[in-house]
Amino acid sequence: MAEIIPEFVGQYRFLSNFHVEADGKTVEHRFQAAKATTPEDHARVMAAVDPNKAKYAGRSIQLRTDWEQVKVQIMVGLLQQKFADPELRQKLADTGTAYLQEGNHWNDRYWGVDRKTGIGRNVLGHSLMLVRATL
Questions:
Q1: Comparing C-alpha atoms, which of 126, 95, 120, 77 is closest to residue 14?
Q2: What's the pLDDT tens digit per position in 77-118?
Q3: Which CA distances in Å does 115 have to 6, 9, 103, 120, 130?
Q4: Which residues are within 8 A (CB) of 69 and not within 5 positions of it... i.e. 6 or more apart?
Q5: What CATH number is attached to the domain comprising 92?
Q6: Which residue in 40, 63, 108, 109 has a CA-CA distance of 20 to 30 Å to 120?
């Protein structure tokens, strides 16, 4: 059975959407900004000082009408961009065949798995494994 990386902390923090990239932004900033329907909302999300504030800002804007249909595709694209960085790409490759699980304590059962209950779709983990398979 393959190793399981149960959450994106410590040495695996780089897998998190809150990992700060070279430009000072995160996948979380970019993902939340992708929801925007106006340039002003996009800029406001991208200007957030940290990924938590970007997430909060993204929850307060009007969503593009096709968001539910495109959000996973957008996430995969953002992860592909993130892991185009040679150092991050190598770190992702070094996870080998490990099952990547976005374990969390905030009850996100879509993008991750609730660590208390073990329930969740783990869409972020599966997206990361998809990107890893294309390296």
A1: 95
A2: 999 999 999 999 999 999 999 999 999 999 999 999 999 999
A3: 9, 13, 5, 9, 22
A4: none
A5: 1.10.357.40
A6: 63
Comparing CA positions, the residue from 134, 124, 92, 133 lying closest to residue 18 is 124
Cβ atoms within 10 Å, residue 96: 9
Q: What is the pTM of this model?
A: 0.95
Number of structural domains, the chain?
Answer: 1
* Domain coverage including residue 41: 4-133
Q: What type of residue is 63?
A: L
